[in-house]
Specification:
The chain is built from 9 helices and 8 strands. It has one domain (about 55-270): 3-Layer(aba) Sandwich (Rossmann fold). The protein is an alpha/beta fold. α6 (about 145-155) links the parallel β3 (about 135-140) and β4 (about 160-165). The radius of gyration is 20 Å and the shape is globular.
């Protein structure tokens, strides 16, 4: 029996709205033509929203340098304030972190750089993958976060972890890593200088995996409210949260992106060109 016209139209519209016929929450390959997502902030939460930075064309060389210094200082202040509660807030993302490490395809003895390593939440999975003969280089701007990462390494007895306090834009790696991990470090993914610097020091053909948060679909306003609150605590900008991997695409030509958690998270993976 044919469906009533009104119900049929509603069904077709629901199918179109939930992501081109996908069930809400289903993992998908991200589309470049997906529209920006509206954000619904939490009612009653008083947080200073990160502000968009002026476009490079609007800045002279000195203004651009001053803006970068101020941005790095803001990042340092955010993590100094929130270092003590970071692991609690990040606990829900543990399955995504482990999935990101698995996507690196690390073998025994591999060298991996953990960009924006924070308190070292990815270290256990990385250590399991590379073994004692491998090496982890953890980069982070925040001394407070690195203090907790160092404590984690000491308690676990990991002697193959090097922690470097540095901005990612200025990081100077003493090794040529086999793989690069960027996990929930939105400011890094939105910095062309940071991406070019760290990926430029990796070996040709190195695996690159990036995981993080993104604006969810419009029909998941609760997820966007939650993400808005966390982003205000751990990021200096909301720019790029609709497609956080956008700047990475130019550097990793075969980049593949999956969206997770009702579109509120993503996992991007690929390899650097072998002949660069």
């Amino acid at each position: 029996m044919a469906e009533p016209e009104g119900r049929s139209k509603k069904a077709r519209q629901a199918k179109a709205d939930n992501g081109h016929g996908r069930a809400p929450g289903e993992d998908t390959v991200a589309r470049d033509d997906e529209p920006p997502i509206s954000v619904v902030p939490l009612i009653g939460v008083e947080l200073e929203s990160p502000q968009p930075e002026p476009a490079p064309a609007e800045q002279g060389p000195q203004a651009a340098a001053d803006a970068r210094r101020e941005r790095l200082a803001r990042i340092a202040r955010l993590y100094a304030v929130n270092a003590g509660t970071h692991d609690m807030h990040a606990a829900a993302a543990e399955p995504i972190r482990r999935r990101a490490v698995a996507a690196l395809e690390l073998g025994e003895g591999a060298v991996v750089v953990d960009v924006g390593c924070g308190t070292g939440l990815s270290f256990p999975a990385l250590e399991q993958a590379i073994g004692p003969g491998g090496r982890i280089v953890g980069l982070d701007l925040s001394p407070e976060m690195l203090e907790r990462a160092r404590s984690r390494c000491d308690k676990a007895g990991w002697a193959n972890v090097e922690l470097v306090e540095t901005s990612i834009e200025e990081a100077d790696l003493a090794v040529e890593p086999d793989a690069v991990l960027i996990s929930f470090a939105h400011d890094v993914t939105q910095s062309p200088e940071a991406l070019a610097n760290v990926l430029g020091q990796a070996r040709p053909g190195a695996r690159v995996v990036v995981a993080g948060a993104k604006w969810a679909a419009w029909w998941a306003p609760g997820m966007n409210s939650y993400l808005w609150t966390l982003a205000a605590q751990y990021s200096t900008t909301f720019d790029g949260l609709a497609r956080p991997w956008g700047r990475l695409s130019a550097l990793v030509p075969d980049l593949r992106v999956e969206t997770l958690l009702f579109g509120g998270a993503y996992l991007a993976q690929g390899r650097l060109p072998a002949g660069r």
